[in-house]
Amino acid sequence: MTTSEHLSGTTGDDAIVPDTKDWTWVLERPCADCGLDSGAVGREEVAGMVRANAAGWAGVLAGDPEALRRRPRPEIWSDLEYACHVRDVFRLFHVRLDLMLAEDDPLFPNWDQDATAVAERYGEQAPAAVAGELARAAEVLAAAFEGVSGAQWARTGNRSDGARFTVESFARYLVHDPVHHLYDVTGERV
User: Fold this and answer.
1) Quick check: 19 and 114 in contact, CB under 8 A?
2) What is the DSSP letter of 50?
3) What does the DSSP 8-state code read for residue 166?
4) By C-alpha distance, which of 182, 79, 91, 188 is closest to 127?
5) How far is it, in rounded angstroms, from Cα 27 to Cα 154?
6) How many Å apart are CA 26 and CA 119, to the nearest integer?
7) Is the pLDDT of residue 142 over 50?
8) What SS3 class is residue 22?
9) CA 39 to CA 24: how far, in whole Å?
């Protein structure tokens, strides 16, 4: 996943500059930007952190719709675009968690977050609708993590770039993305 400095940059045709950084380092050390130490997050904490993050986004998305659509700089997403991305991350991680629990060592289908942002016209979506969708996606994902128990935490899954996760490391990796993006728009560190 990505941060504000790498998430998006536009060209004249609204294309987004892809982020190619490998963010799995957040499992090894705290993030100097948002302050989250993902490696220290207990797996039992993830569901609550997802729900708390969704509540933070509800506050952000209650703001002025035009202000939410405004990018602070052309290469940095607007608050609304970040919120759409977080909603879609929650949805994607639920799909991937289900794969890890249902299949032995699955390979996750690739997801181009930048192409999704353009195709789904993130900056034009209705903030109130995004708030509801984000809250629902967060609740579904949080409940799915609450349903994980015992040996399921050790089940594995893989990205096509070679990154390999257990359900437990996957949960810790996940939580950094929405926390970091909420920091991107509010400036509030964890």
Assistant:
1) yes
2) H
3) E
4) 79
5) 16
6) 28
7) yes
8) coil
9) 11
Helix (H, G, I), strand (E, B) or coil at 157: strand
Q: Within 10 A of 36 (CB to CB), how many other CB atoms are there?
A: 21
51: which residues sit within 8 A by CB, 6+ positions away? 138, 139, 142
How far apart, in whole angstroms, are the C-alpha atoms of residue 51 and residue 140?
10
What local confidence, expressed as pLDDT, does residue 75 receive?
85
Residue 139: count of CB within 10 angstroms of its CB: 15
| pLDDT (mean) for 34-52 | 97
Mean pLDDT of the chain: 91
| Overall residue count recorded for the chain in this entry | 190
Q: Give CA 69 to chain center in angstroms.
A: 19
Residue 153 has pLDDT above 50, yes or no: yes
Distance CA 178, CA 147 (A): 21
pTM for the full predicted model: 0.90
Select from 113, 112, 109, 99 the least CA-distant residue to 157. Answer: 99
Tell me the angle at which helices 79-102 and 167-186 cross, rounded to the nearest 10 degrees. Answer: 170
Under a CB-based contact definition with an 8 Å cutoff, are residues 122 and 85 in contact? yes
Query: Which residues are CB-contacts of 83 (< 8 A; sequence separation ≥ 6)?
Result: 57, 60, 61, 68, 127, 130, 131, 134, 185
Give the pLDDT confidence score for residue 19 in this predicted structure. Answer: 62
Tokens of 35: 């302050």
